[in-house]
Fold:
Amino acid sequence: MSARDDEQAAVARNTAALLAAVNASDVAGILAVWSASGVLMPPHHPAVHGRAEIERYFNRLFEQRRFKFSFTSSLIEVFGEIAFERLEYEASVRPVDGGQEFRDVGKGLHVYRREGDGSWKLVADIWNSDKPTNAGP
Structure:
């Protein structure tokens, strides 16, 4: 395995940890992969800056909903101290208090940065749905 393969594998492990944490509603697990200065850019929501705000965002989200995400494709490219991961996802979302499940498919981009200790941390995460927001013209 080459050094580049090792770096890609390290990034992939972080993505797997993030995915598992989201699916388990585990805020501490989510924060473990984030840089202190990270920016989360969820759809239909203002950007969320920094670990403290990301924690608040996910705490509120998990009070209302449960998620089941899977990544159907992932392409990781490493460029020195930065790595990009382009992905496609499938997701189901259900309200905590019951109600109808919502299914979605879409794409996203993760940006990772190698920290001083050699670990890879998420510095930017953006995703959006492939589904139209309305059925009108």
Remarks:
- The first helix runs from residue 3 to 23.
- Helices lie at 3-23, 27-32, 50-64.
- DSSP finds three helices and six strands in the chain.
